Each structure stands twice: as C-alpha cells, then as structure tokens.
Sequence to fold (469 residues):
Amino acid sequence: MKFPHDFLFGAASAAYQIEGAWNEDGKGITNWDAFSKIPGKTFEGTNGDVAIDHYHRYPEDIKLMAEMGLESYRFSISWARIIPDGDGAINEKGIQFYNNIIDECLKYGIVPFVTLYHWDLPQALEDKGGWINKDIVNAFARYAEICYKAFGDRVKHWITFNETVVFCTLGYLNGAHPPGYVNDAKKYFQATHHVFVAHARVIQIYKSLKQYGEIGITHVFNPAYGVDEKEENQQAAFHANNYQTFWYYDPILKGEYPTYVIDALREKELTPDWNEEELALLREMAGNNDFIGLNYYQPARVIKIDEPAESIAMDRDKSTGRPGNPSFDSYYRTVMMDDKVYTKWGWEISAEGFMQGLRMIKDRYGDVKLYITENGLGDEDPIIEGEIVDVPRIKYIEEHLRAVKLAIQEGINLKGYYAWSVIDLLSWLNGYKKQYGFIYVDHKNNLERRKKLSFHWYKHIIATRGEEL
Ligand code: BGP
Fold:
C-alpha cells in the first residue's frame, strides 16, 4: 500500500529551538530567554540565544527541506517576536520574518503547519502570572487573531498549543521549565484550565474569520500501560490515562473534564477556579476542533505505589522523560522494564505501544482526524568517515511509520506524519548533544548544515509514498 494522496509527510521544529536572534529586530524577551540563563537549569547552560541561527539561515534550511521532498513543515511562531510584551504593540519585523518563512515554504510547495504556542511566552506576561492569570486568555486570543489576519491567507493549518501536559507539569510540578514551581498542583490544574479556555477562544475566533483552513491542538500522546496484569497496576494505568491523557483530550474533544479526575480534585480542594462562562465555551467549541495532533515518543509503564512518594522535585535526569517518577498524587510511578528497549536517554522505543494507544484514542473519541505532529529518535549520531550514519533513527521512524500505515488500514483517521525534527536543534534541557534531525548542524564549524543518511532515506520514503514500508 502507498500512503493515501492526501496524507502529508512532514517534519517539525519550534521557534526557541532553532531561531536564535533572541534579541534582534524588536523581539521581546521570553520566559525561556530568562529561565535558560539561571545557572543549573539546562544542560551545560545551553540556551537558544543563537540556537542553530535559523533566523538568518532559513532560506538555506527550507531549500534543504525542499530537496528532501518534504510535503509539509511544522514550525512555531514566537509570540514575543510578534508582540514583544505579549499584549501591547505589534512588531512589524516579527510579522515580516514569518511572512518570509511561509513564502519560502510556498515557493517550494511545502505546506506550512503553524503552532501558535510552543512554550516561549513573553516574559512580561510571565511576570504578570503567566498561565495562572486569567488575563492571559485575552492576550493569547489577541495574539492568535493577529497571526490569523497576517498569515491566514497562506497558512491553512493551525495548531494552538504544543503539549500542555509537558509545559504545565514541568513548569508547576517539577520546576524544570519556567516558571519553575515545584509541587504546586493547584497552579498546575489552574494553568491547564486556562490553556483549554484559551484554545477554545482562539478556535472560536478562527472560525468566525472564515479563513477555511483547519485548526486543532497538539498533545503529548503517552498512553499508559500497567507493568503487569495485576488489578492494582491496571488501575494505575487507568488512573494515569485519566490524568495524563483524558484530562487534556476530553475538554478539547468532548467539551468537559473527566469525572474521575474532577471528583478527586474536589476532594483534594484542587479544583481550578473556573466559571460557567468558561465551561460553556469549552462545551460549545468541542465540536469545532478539526483535528488533534499527537506527539508520540514513548508509552508509560506504570506501577501502583502505596507509600507516600518522595517529593517530585526532580533532578534534570528525571525531568527529561526518563521513567522513574511518582505521579503528583503518589498514586503510581513510571518504571523502566527489563524486557523493553530504551534510547540513550531512557525513552522506551515501542511502535506497538503507539499502535495500541491509537486504538484507545479511536475507542474514546471516534473518528477524530489525527496528525502525528512529532515522533523521532533522540540520539548522539555516529559519524563514520565524515558521513552521519544515523541508522538507529531510520529504524525508529521506519517502525513508527509502519504503525501509522497499519493504523490507516484499520480505519484510524490519520492524515499526516511529522518527524521530530527536521534539523538538529536545541533540546530544551539536553542542549545540542541530543540530536533528532535529518539535517546535521556542525557546532564546531560555523553551524554548517549537512545531510544525514536519514535525509536520503526519508526522501525515498516520501518519493515512493511509503510503498515499501
Ligand atoms: C517534545 C517537544 C519538542 C522536543 C521533543 C524532544 O516534548 O514538543 O519541542 O523538544 O519533545 O524532547 P527532548 O529534546 O527533551 O528530547
């Protein structure tokens, strides 16, 4: 089988991880510009000040994407380039930059798939409480509308938020991302609620503008499985899926929160401060979501725990996706298992867990349209005689693309696949050591770009529409 003609083969990036030019052309300071400079927060103090300098080198980068045959490029807009302080004056040079990126993509027939929020928040808004302050919903709505009006004539695919569970968990429970709170479950749930309301608002605005594109949200897709068949571990998986998946997907797709979580929050006095107007908006907009983007890297293997777990304030090693942490309510813990295969960073490799999870999504949410908006292997790529032979990446993507094909054959409504990442870039907490790209960036040689083995492989997959998979 070839992949259907309307299936998009893509690859992704995010503004902070590639652009650099952190203080150029009127851009405002973001939470990440500030946070990454606090000693000890990132791997060897790396930050995105220069990143891979995509801000200046985008013509070369997009030309390479075109050469690879990429059909669609997912990238994010940095809010602080458009509105430096988040809710004030517009920076025309920021608009111009993204116009250039979009036009450059279209020049080669690459479909731009744009994320509005991939974690870099204008610091001025963070200073006012960020996602805890209800005013952020209005600020985000204004920012989104400015983007729709500036770019919507050419951009027909919009993602509102990237991975709410990650920036909220790491920002309010683990302290590993800005704003760096530790164990603040009250703030955590409040922030998630404001994100969902902001999402619903900007869906509403988008639809009212009648730009006739599609809009959705991207979530982490981290299906949980019990480590064995024991009832308590199956219950742990049910619990984890409710908190990590359904809490995030239900308000978007069903317009309401899962009762299992709501009941527990009420008991613990952690219910977000929400009002009837907000809840009504979630209900109203649920049917207007055009798709869900799934970022899949690994499943979660969970085990029930009984004793109160230690604080979940994490060392960096544990806050970068490696299993081993207790849940915020000390109900379960994620674990590494002897019979599973892991990356160098301890992420499980499981195309089978992916497949099973896709079936779970279909069971719960029906025929909702899906895109895989991220999937890929973080590795330290081998270089042999000057060639970057990233065979493990090829193997990883191949296995997952096979699962995508199988899912389509099973009738799952999957319309595209975006490898993470199109080019080597800055990993939020792992610096430049952890590579994901099809294109190598030589940090010892003026950030020179080079094609990896996977570049040629993906080019072939796209050209043959995955027939050989
Ligand atoms: C996702 C993010 C991406 C990217 C990816 C890999 O959660 O959306 O921005 O960072 O994970 O993560 P890491 O760099 O930590 O391996």
In short: The pocket of 6-O-phosphono-beta-D-galactopyranose is lined by residues 14, 17, 162-163, 166, 295, 320, 374, 378, 420, 427-430, 434 (CB under 6 Å). The radius of gyration is 21 Å. Residues 298 and 350 are 6 Å apart (CA to CA).
